């Protein structure tokens, strides 16, 4: 890690309230997305929602924790999402590849954003009786996404990694 670029004024550990709020917002994100796509079924199963949630769990719960968090200042500390602590429970320090992690993070969050934005209107178009439920889910998803973007700027401005992290919203 490039010690010289660490933002010394950044938080050593984020408040637990921030960690809880970040994860509640993410649960709402995945909740609105999964429900909004639940009308898209195969053999009676909401396959798009199931696939979406499994992808999110594997990538956010494991792959990115391995490649990003094991190389991060907040490894085994409380960052804004608390995932530095999760990573230290799962993987050894520096056992991942930060460059791969950054590339995968961009693709992951891109897909987790664009899939519901396409699939929910598609579900509303295909199933007339899902129009209102789909509309509420899409609105909720877009509101949470906007709050997340706004929250990221504030969170990144307090982060020790703000000048190192390729996904920083406060360079
Ligand atoms: S700030 Fe990001 S990369 Fe660092 S530990 Fe937290 S989630 Fe992982």
End-to-end gap: 17 Å
Helix and strand element order: HHHHH
Mean pLDDT: 93
- Shape estimate: elongated
What is the secondary structure topology, with strand pairs?
Elements: H1 16-36, H2 47-67, H3 83-90, H4 98-126, H5 131-157
Helix pairs in contact: 1-2, 1-5, 2-3, 2-4, 4-5
Give a short summary of the structure:
With 171 residues, the protein is an all-alpha fold.
Name a few traits of the molecule.
binds iron/sulfur cluster; 171 residues; mainly alpha
Q: Could you explain how this protein is built, in words?
A:
The chain is mostly helical and 171 residues long. The chain has one domain. The chain has helices spanning 16-36, 47-67, 83-90, 98-126, 131-157. It binds iron/sulfur cluster. Iron/sulfur cluster (SF4) is lined by residues 68-69, 72, 74-75, 79, 81, 83-84, 161.
């Amino acid at each position: 890690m490039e010690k010289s670029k660490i933002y010394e004024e950044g938080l050593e550990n984020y408040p637990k309230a921030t960690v809880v709020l970040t994860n509640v917002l993410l649960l709402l994100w995945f909740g609105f997305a999964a429900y909004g796509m639940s009308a898209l079924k195969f053999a009676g199963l909401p396959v798009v929602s199931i696939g979406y949630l499994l992808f999110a769990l594997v990538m956010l719960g494991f792959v990115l924790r391995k490649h990003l968090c094991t190389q991060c200042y907040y490894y085994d500390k409380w960052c804004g999402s608390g995932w530095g602590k999760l990573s230290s429970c799962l993987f050894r320090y520096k056992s991942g590849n930060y460059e791969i992690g950054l590339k995968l993070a961009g693709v992951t969050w891109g897909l987790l954003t664009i899939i519901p934005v396409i699939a929910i209107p598609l579900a509303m178009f295909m199933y007339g009786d899902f129009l209102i439920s789909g509309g509420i889910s899409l609105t909720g998803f877009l509101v949470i996404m906007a709050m997340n973007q706004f929250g990221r700027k504030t969170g990144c401005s307090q982060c020790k990694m703000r000048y190192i992290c390729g996904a920083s919203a406060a360079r």
